[in-house]
Amino acid sequence: SMLLKVAALQFKSTNSYDGNIEKIDNLIRQAKEAGADIILPSELFEGDYFCQIENYKNYLLAEEYETSKTLAHYQQLAKELNVVLPISFFERCGNVYYNSICIIDADGTKLGVYRKTHIPTGECYEEKFYFTPGNTGFKVFKTKFGNIGVAICWDQWFPECARIMALKGAEMLLYPTAIGSEPVLTKDSKDHWQHVMQGHAAANIMPVIAANRTGVESINNSSMKFFGSSFIADEFGNIVESKGRDDEGFIIHEFDLDAVRDNRIDWGVFRDRRVEMYKDILKDDDSNGR
């Protein structure tokens, strides 16, 4: 059996690059001491969630994949601790900017990048101002500790994204996130947010791990309260570990990937898919272009 432990981190931003890196490093080391093999920080953790407002100066925060000091730092830490680290970062590539994640293997090797596919917009989530929609497609990364599918925040609401990663051989799905108050919707989406990902776990019969921010972050006249509630769901969609709304720290859970695979085979949902019947999924609506 292939036993491994996966962890998710949850913390309040210090609005300081150095302060946040130090915080995340400490949490990674604590999770490693607890036996973690794969450790997931939240989305864009290097500073406050700058997408609350539109400000051209924030483009200066972006780093290139090849020369990023953040990625270089976590390459060293991954190698030192023998852990897999999916590291979210604001990527500049030529004249284009992406909301990206680099998967760093346990030997410090960069396995490549995934660029966020679905880009939200709305009050406090002004991501379309900053990010071009990702062009990598959905990816699965073969790490020392299994094949992991990794997508980013708004991607987690789309079942197509989870299913494609499952079809590409993912053994678990990881979602770094930044979500909290919804000033336009004036609703608390915490339960809904968890339920949709629990559905991905149950439908694809594989664990789902979500790492969210917590705490209040204020930029200019904008303020957001992130609702934390990071969680790990098992292959049946049950939440097996979770953090509270305001907690900082990490959650960790052990999975037997061979047993999970056996459950996936036993259910037969991949055997019984009828892909020739699914063509309508490629349409935006039912008007046939009228």
From TrEMBL:
Residues 4-257 form the CN hydrolase domain. InterPro entries: Aliph_Amidase/BUP (IPR050345), C-N_Hydrolase (IPR003010), C-N_Hydrolase_sf (IPR036526), N-carbamoylputrescine_amidase (IPR017755). GO terms for biological process: putrescine biosynthetic process from arginine. CDD domains: CPA. Keywords: Hydrolase. The keyword Hydrolase applies. Pfam families: CN_hydrolase. The keyword Hydrolase applies. Belongs to the carbon-nitrogen hydrolase superfamily. GO terms for molecular function: N-carbamoylputrescine amidase activity. This is CN hydrolase domain-containing protein.
